[in-house]
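This protein record is not my work; I was only asked to verify it. Where you disagree with what is written, explain briefly why. This is what I was given:
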Amino acid sequence: MRIVKISEAELRALDASGRFPNPHLVSAYGVIQAALYGALSDTYKHPVSVVPITSGSWKKAAVGAGAAGKPEVLEWAQANGYEGNHQDSADAWAIARAGRVLLSP
């Protein structure tokens, strides 16, 4: 298995669902999805899924408000177990929580 470390700027390309779509970001998004699927499939014996989600959808599932801003997400995450102080890390924490909510049987 090969782990690929990406920068924060590259990670932002994953949210290709904004109001002003950028074809280059959409292409990067597909490449990153394929690489992530390949790495997960090589790592785990069970079937894996890579599911695209819009920022409004994960915010609604985790925070309860699809239009929540970074300060609201950070406040919510800290109230629900996130111990850090970094807004982007709180976003990642909330996305993981939304994944659990949305993908639970």
